[in-house]
Amino acid sequence: xxxMILLVLVPFMCLVGSCGSDDNNEMSEPEIGPVTxxxxxSTPIVINEGTSAEVTFSNTSTGNSPRYFWAFGEQAIxxxxxxxxxxxxxxxYPLIEEEQTVEVVLxxxxxxxxxxxxATNTITIPASEVMEEEEEEEELNCSDIxxxxxxxxxxxxxxxxxxxxxxxxxxxxxxxxxxxxDTMVGQITNSxxxxxxxxxxxxxxxxxxxxxxxxxxLLFSNVEVPIALQFVEGVNGVRGVxxxxxxxxxxWEEIILDYTNATxxxxxxxxxxxxxxxPDGQYGQIVLFIDGPGTTxxxxxxxxxxxxxxxxxxxxxxxDDPGDDPVEPVFANPITxxxxxxxxxxxxxxxxxxxxxxxxxxxxxDTMVGQITNSxxxxxxxxxxxxxAANFTTDNKLVSVLxFSNVEVPxxxxxxxxxxxEREVETxxxxxxxxWEEVVFDYNNATxxxxxxxxxxxxxxxPSGEYGQIVLFIDGPGTTxxxxxxxxxxVD
Length: 492
Hints:
The protein is mostly beta strands. The chain folds into 3 domains: 35-125, Sandwich (Immunoglobulin-like); 142-309, Jelly Rolls (Sandwich); 344-487, Jelly Rolls, CATH 2.60.120. The protein is built from 2 helices and 32 strands. The protein has helices at 2-15, 132-138, and strands at 35-36, 39-41, 45-47, 52-59, 62-63, 67-71, 80-83, 89-94, 100-109, 115-125, 160-162, 166-171, 184-190, 197-207, 214-221, 225-234, 241-247, 251-258, 263-264, 282-290, 298-303, 344-346, 350-355, 368-374, 381-391, 398-405, 409-418, 425-431, 435-442, 447-448, 466-474, 482-487. The strands form 7 sheets. A 6-stranded antiparallel beta sheet has the order 11-14-20-16-17-19, with no helix packed on it. A 6-stranded antiparallel beta sheet has the order 22-25-31-27-28-30, with no helix packed on it. It has a 5-stranded antiparallel beta sheet with strand order 12-13-21-15-18, with no helix packed on it. A hairpin with a 6-residue loop joins strand 16 (225-234) and strand 17. It is globular.
């Protein structure tokens, strides 16, 4: 019994602070280090129709390290991540016409950021597999003979509905994206039942006798949904067919349904359809399902069914070429530093507004510019609040910047503080070190930014909202120090 009482009292006495010995070392945190850092890389797997490659990196380090920092190279998506485990990292590399060699670095770090060990490997990324013929194919829009009378809702066309859906003619509620015009559109409201739908009879009927089997339409949705467009009531008894596509949920999008991949429609349990069939006849009716087998409820909008415009971009009632319309800028107020715009800084960076120190290259003018001085630590940066916010709601996803450097450096430009909670994004570019250069950041290739070890970002995301702040990293994961200069951010 006395031994049992001692076992109870000892932990109680330690809790109140009367244990002064080191007898309980087995309860302390594991000792950090020594660490032997190493990693392996998989063979690159070509993805995205030959435009990108994936590489998986496995951390094979030994020893105790609480944190690991990866730097995957200047073209990597994401550029770098910091993690608290040894989980595999799958990284995307955009492909170019030539084979690339990329240096990848793995560092073990303690909780104060001190480097415990480093490993470096060079990997080879293959050349792009995209062929010129594929680029020519993208120029084709859709056949202009399938629909003799495209459905544009300017003549009061009414859809029938079934299964719980409802329909109304309304003015375009969002003059953005692929449908920027002030015209009438069809509003389809799903009630949330499976296989509710809508459609319209066609006079004259559609005609699939030509070689081109594609049908274009414009669809608006704020959620990702699958759609199915059926052609039924075949003239001379031709079998009904359907094709499928997915709307990403980013507002107005042009959808191209390719009926070279069509299948027969469901008729009955004894004839459930699903057999491949390329249509070559005529059809007197279309039927549209939005999330057919699912139960997605809400309002969707449709326009320009079967209307083929070589320039895309929706209705053009005035007969003007929408391709001639000016591109809407991302920055309503570009940053030129002529109005005293000041950058905030963090991590060691300093900032000043100075006269252009080198009136050469892409910036030959005697104007004020921003001077950014890196101290030489990883992930130091700078930025500025935007008023009004940067606007990515249009098709334009490009941001130009004039940047001066005498050394080659990678750049990352983040758009953060989403106005309506939009996920923060970034994209990357490289300055060659040749003085003033125009650098164009393409947010069609943007990815989500690092938020935490549990949400390290790096997922592809094309921005479609508004952002109240930009953040710039010059050699973010590296330690390049010195003076850099910036000008004309968002001047188109």
